[in-house]
Amino acid sequence: MSTATTPSADPVELSKGAASSAAGQSWWQRDSADSAKRNLALIGVLVLLLVIGAWTRSDIFLDIDRLWSNELTVLTQASSIGVIVVGMTFVMISGGIDLSVGALLALASVWCTTVATQDLGPAAMVFTALAVGAIAGLVNGGLIAYGKLVPFIATLAMMLSARGLAQNISGSHTQITADPFIKSLAGDRLFGVPYMVIIFVVVTALGWVLLNRTTFGRRTIAIGGNAEAARLAGINVRLQTLLLYVLSGLCCGIAALMVVSQTTSGSNTHGDLYELSAIAAAIIGGTALTGGRGTIVGSLLGVLIFTQITNLFIVNNLQLDIQRIINGGIIVAAVLIQQFRVGSFFRTRFNK
């Protein structure tokens, strides 16, 4: 009795079919365009916020000079937290979290403004801030990568320790600095643009290159997608994790110099709740809490949206408690939106 056999599918034909199917899709319908779609949506949100501003405070948002001045203020306010968000984005893409960023900023600001450090000049102040941030990040990374601590616990412990150490060094007093170079970072401009904003743009650009054009960035994404698979592929997951937290700490050191320049002081209260703002901005920008997905451009837009919303609250004299309630709602909404794949939504809509 003979049996009929079904011819097996030719792999070449299958690959050709998959290729032709992908070719039949428009760019807008492909998964590879998801990041671009999210960024376009975020730009739309920014435009909407400006429209709301024009409706609620037309005296500011419909006057070109006052609008330009206001938006420069927004960019300046976004600069220090924006630098921190760049480091936070790398950590979150890898599947981690860093709750210590605000405390590290405070510690770096206090340490670089001690009398002993200031006596050595501005170069020593800059080096101290960067070194404190990087070393603290090294401790975080070491505890997580080699000590096998959960990132939440390790960075929470660092947050408490760093804030306490900053308070101990400063004696709970504000340390004033009058160094001309440090003050110039916030006071001087290049072609009408504050140095603070230029620093923010440079750090963001370097972060984009590091994430998108280097093996460091590809390894970060691979670890966030599947750490075990990344290890089996030959990636040194522990070393990569260590370096990611050093990068986050270094960004905290840069941000500390910016805050010291803005306030002309170092204080153990600097950076209060910065960790929540940084995480919120990264989430709004499309960085996944579970890791494996995120973009520097998206995080940049997330920072600008968060800061623009705060600016709208301020110019409309909204009470602080109401501001915090709304900010909390925004974070929840951003996380809920992340549960839906943008590409799948559009395919469902347009492929019927």
UniProtKB/TrEMBL annotation:
Q: How does it sit in the membrane?
A: Multi-pass membrane protein
Q: Where in the cell is it found?
A: Cell membrane
Q: Which GO terms describe its molecular function?
A: transmembrane transporter activity
**A single cellular component GO annotation:** plasma membrane
Name the domain of life.
Bacteria
Q: Which UniProt keywords apply?
A: Cell membrane, Membrane, Transmembrane, Transmembrane helix
Q: What is its main location?
A: membrane
Please indicate if the UniProt record lists Repeat as a keyword: no
Q: Which residues form a coiled coil?
A: none
Pfam families attached to this UniProt entry: BPD_transp_2 (PF02653)
Which ranges does the record mark as transmembrane? Answer: 40-58, 78-111, 123-143, 190-211, 242-261, 296-314, 326-346
InterPro entries tied to this protein:
ABC_transp_permease
Keyword Cell membrane present in the record's keywords: the answer is yes
Listed PANTHER family: ABC TRANSPORTER PERMEASE PROTEIN YPHD-RELATED-RELATED (PTHR32196), RIBOSE IMPORT PERMEASE PROTEIN RBSC (PTHR32196:SF72)
Q: Under what name is this protein listed?
A: ABC transporter
List the source organism. Dactylosporangium siamense
Its lineage opens with: Bacteria, Bacillati, Actinomycetota, Actinomycetes, Micromonosporales
